[in-house]
Amino acid sequence: MSPVVQTRDLTKRFGRVQALAGLDLSVAEGEVHGFVGPNGAGKSTTIRILLGLMRAGGGSASVLGGDPWADASALHRRIAYVPGDVSLWPNLSGGEAIDLLARLRGARTTDPAYQARRRQLLERFQLDPTRKGRTYSTGNRQKVALVAALAVPADLLILDEPTSGLDPLMDAVFRAEIVGAAADGATVLLSSHILSEVERLCDRVSIIRSGRIIETGTLAELRHLTRTEVAFAGAGLTDAELAGLAARLPGVRDLTVGDDRVSFTVDAATLPGILPVLADLKVQALTVAPPTLESLFLRHYGGPSAAPSGPEEAGADPAGAHSPQHRHRR
Amino acid sequence: MPTLWPLLALRLRRDRVQVPVWLLSLGAITLLAGIAVPASFGTLVERESLVQIAVGTPAILMLRGEPRGPDTDALLFFSLFANLATAVAFMNTFLAVRHSRAEEEAGRSELIGATVASRMVPLLATMLFGALASLAAGAAVALALVAAGLDLDGALVTGAALAGTGVVFLGVGVVAAQLMRTSRGANGLAAAVVGLAYVLRAVGDAGGTPAADGLSLTSAWPSWLSPIGWGQHTRAFTENNLAPLLLAVAFAGLLVAVAVLLQSRRDTGSSVFAERSGRPAAGPLLRGSLGLAWRLQRPAILGWAITGLLFGLLAGSLGETVADLMEGNPVFQNVLVGLAGGRGAVIDLYTAALFSLVGVIAAAAAIQSMLRARQEEAAGVAEAMLSTSLGRIRWLFDYLFVGLAGIVLVVAAAVLGAAAGLISSENAADRIASVLAAGAAQLPAALLLLAVAAVLVALVPRLSVGLSWGLLLAAVVVGQFGDLLDLPQWLRDLSPFSHTPAVAAAEVDWSGAWWMPALAVLLTAVAAVGIRRRDLAL
């Protein structure tokens, strides 16, 4: 089965700025694919090329088996899109905008099925369709675009940070709708900053950095690439025990002895080897957390040192692996 | 293309007020003039003397067109067509940019482009809509002419000529939208092309060859370079020649092809002329809201000032030509002798008459600057400004000050241009002093209109943009064309331009120079109170 979205060595340049530098993205049929990366990494440019709104500078892209630039109209019949920054017509109501976009995707707005679906979505998203475009808040504009995208069934949903303006309740509605669309067989490409959302929704994730995909796979696969976070209460331990920790825990990195928590990271494979040590120390309030997408993300963007509040040491330097840091220990 | 119809319907729905207002205005002006001209110039003798004056006066020719005999219908076509065509041209360039580049700038074209309509159908829908609007404008004017009792054939030719000119400027608008990154830039470029077309036509008519009887004129070659000139060359009512419209159709076709080609090749949101990157840090002028207002309006004011300069130069350098023409014409020789001051007085009269348009340009520059405040408010950036220590009144007045600067700069540039044109006249110092007075005389009306715009922004923000431009247009029509339309005196007195002191006249009424600025100050105070009391209208 050929992928729904496939790009090879995709490039795009804006003047002196290289927006995409050989991007290889592959989205399989029926999956919810997370597309994550920082601002300016090339997410929106990629999406616009996939929609035929921009032309690829080099490389190739195929969407639903077609050329996104040349076959744009035919492909768009099967695609629904929610832009990141939704702008509506100031003197048209939200309901008018939804129907217009539905018609432009080939739906008949008199169709009872469409009307039922539209009514259902308006209810779920608690959207008033009678208000004029200029009076909607950011979140409500986003809801209009979401309702328009979801009201007509699509084979491929392309969502560019669709929930940045939604409140948590609406966020839950959105997730339920995406799960429903995927269950109906739709493929979803979800670009997002909200990593917890990607973790909850996506089957596979691609991480983009400086116009390239640097990591792609299921969350489980990606987790193998990074380390498990272990933490426990330091209260019951003596200073000598704490000082000797580093020597007793081989393969451990980022060892931090904080005010009342001790934490470190460890490869998934080494984890069973250190558990007896922790048991011997009778540690309390032990947490063992598999890596989050956030930690994956931070690792790829320069490691924890890139985060303002994190410890100094990045996992990449082996020399620092056994040097615990003592912070404010009382 | 099943998506063409919904996109056309979208355009019709969005412009459900705007375009009908244009069409009704065009029809109403035509109908008024169609009734007024036969009423004011009932006899052949009256019309003959009117046409003879026109043929002998380049300034009239520049502002009107190409006279083709003393018949009522020919006179009407001569005095109306160029100005109607300019109005249709602006209707269409604004329409084209509003439905193409402005949509791209706002990001809505992305929403549409991701549907089956894709990249090309929205452009096709915009062009179809513009073509329909052009035809409707032609039909409205033709209908008004027939309603005024004029010949059907001539009315239809006039309508066709208007539609043809309109379609060309629709093409200009869609190409400008392809070339420029912002709708503001595209509108500016398209307006410059409209202005160029008007000037080419004006120069062609002013430099035309009069017939032996002095009752008609054949315009010179520059008129053939102007789409407005092509429409005029149909010579509706006298010759009813549709052939020049082939030029319009061919040129419009070329422009459409260019736009389609560019649209099919470029990225959504990109433009042929890319935007330059800005400076990394704010310069010393960008200190507060006044610096911001100036920075935002600087390019526009510069454009208005250049227009003023060119207009002044034209007025100054043509004065001598007019005096020569009048001296060579036995009919006017007597008028010239009868005038106190002789040749110099004729030049003064002529420049002063042309300077009434400098007042209009200055008022337009001022109103645009004032309305920038409203646009900043609607775009939401004023919210950010006003949530700082900046006060409401200070914020509003900063745009008022920039408008004031616009008035002064436009008038100064026009005076400078006229002075440059008159520098080689005999008694140049007297002439330049007269031009200076003519320039100063334009200030009060422009100030009043600026203050009116400020009050509208302060009191009725949502309506202020449409109302301000509408009032300017009404003031121009009533004040400058009131005699042509035979409007009652009380109505003409409502236009500030009617109270601009006529400095070159024998007895100058200076009262307007005092009460208009006084009223402007009063209105400014009302605006200051109003802006403090209302909510921000986002």
Give a description of the structure.
Chain A has 330 residues and is α/β, with parallel strands linked by helices. In chain A, a hairpin with a 3-residue loop joins strand 12 (252-257) and strand 13. The model of chain A is unreliable at 303-330 (pLDDT under 50). Helices cover 32% and strands 25% of the residues of chain A. Chain A has 2 domains: 5-223, P-loop containing nucleotide triphosphate hydrolases (Rossmann fold, 3-Layer(aba) Sandwich), CATH 3.40.50.300; 226-326, YebC, transcriptional regulation domain (Alpha-Beta Plaits), CATH 3.30.70. Chain B has a domain at 1-273. Helices cover 75% and strands 1% of the residues of chain B. Chain B has helices spanning 4-14, 18-40, 44-56, 58-63, 72-98, 101-106, 108-113, 120-147, 152-179, 183-206, 227-232, 244-265, 289-328, 330-338, 342-379, 381-386, 392-422, 428-459, 461-481, 489-492, 511-533, and strands at residues 209-210, 217-218. In chain B, helix 15 (342-379) runs antiparallel to helix 17 and helix 18 (428-459) runs antiparallel to helix 19. The relative contact order of chain B is 0.09.
Quick description:
Chain A has 330 residues and is of the alpha/beta class. Chain A has helices spanning 43-50, 72-76, 94-104, 112-124, 138-151, 168-183, 195-201, 219-224, 239-243, 245-248, 271-280, 293-300; strands at residues 5-14, 17-23, 26-27, 32-36, 58-63, 79-82, 156-160, 187-191, 204-209, 212-218, 228-233, 252-257, 261-266, 284-289, 325-326. Chain A starts with a strand and ends with a strand.
